[in-house]
Design a protein that fits this description.
By secondary structure, the chain is of the alpha+beta class. The chain has one domain.
């Protein structure tokens, strides 16, 4: 997975209000957005590893354990 340094990576759900607000905020920050619709794209394990690596967190820390 290659990213340009001036590009914003956005993985979101466009069907929710939070997703729509996030995209609007992203467009305010940067005109070049690499957007991934989480409801339409089937992401491979390798892709998820790259995303988690970019975030820099332990995957277990990102899960909501209240459900």
């Amino acid at each position: 997975m290659q990213f340009h340094p001036n590009e914003l990576f956005l993985l979101y759900n466009p069907n929710t209000n939070a997703g729509k607000q996030t995209k609007a905020l992203a467009l305010d920050i940067c005109s070049h957005i690499n957007e991934i619709d989480a409801t339409r794209e089937k992401l491979s394990t390798t892709y998820w590893k790259e995303i988690v690596g970019m975030i820099g967190m332990n995957p277990d820390a990102m899960l909501d354990h209240s459900h």
